[in-house]
Amino acid sequence: SSFLGEEKQEPNNSFDIAVWNNLSEAEKKEAQSTQFELVLPFDPVRRRSTVVIKNGKGHEVIVRGVPNLLLGGADLAATEKKEALLWASEQGKKGMRVLAIVKKISESAVS
User: What sign for the dihedral angle of Cα 28, 30, 32, 37?
Assistant: First the structure.
């Protein structure tokens, strides 16, 4: 998440904290050594945040945002998308906020 690009690399919002607290120590260490190429903070108009990171072979684009927007383009079977959106809707009715996280790996440069 974007907090890793800051001087003090600690989660600073409820979503980052929730994700961070569920990572293994190895995953946290890997995240802290990540090279960020681009960080687009959450935008209420876009309803998502985006980071592009450099990995050993290329780049990864990681997007966090509103499930119905992100799952539309995800590489999932229609039944999986439907189940995920139904679950997100049910959580919303319970007062829970739900975000989807999608990742795309590219072996080419990001332009």
Answer: negative
User: In whole angstroms, what is the distance from residue 21 CA to residue 23 CA?
Assistant: 6
Q: In the prediction, which pLDDT does 26 show?
A: 93
What is the secondary structure of the chain as a DSSP string? -GGGGSSS-S--SHHHHHHHHTS-HHHHHHHHT-EEEEEEEEETTTTEEEEEEE-SSSEEEEEEE-HHHHGGGSS--HHHHHHHHHHHHHHHHTT----EEEEEEESS---
Residue 22 has pLDDT above 80, yes or no: yes
pLDDT, position 29? 87
Q: How far apart are the first and last CA of the chain?
A: 20
Other C-beta atoms lying within 10 Å of the C-beta of residue 75? 7
Q: Mean of the pLDDT values across residues 7-20?
A: 73
Task: Return all residues near 32 (Cβ < 8 A) that are at least 6 apart.
Answer: 4, 9
CA gap 53, 59 in Å, rounded: 6
Q: What is the mean pLDDT of residues 43-58?
A: 86
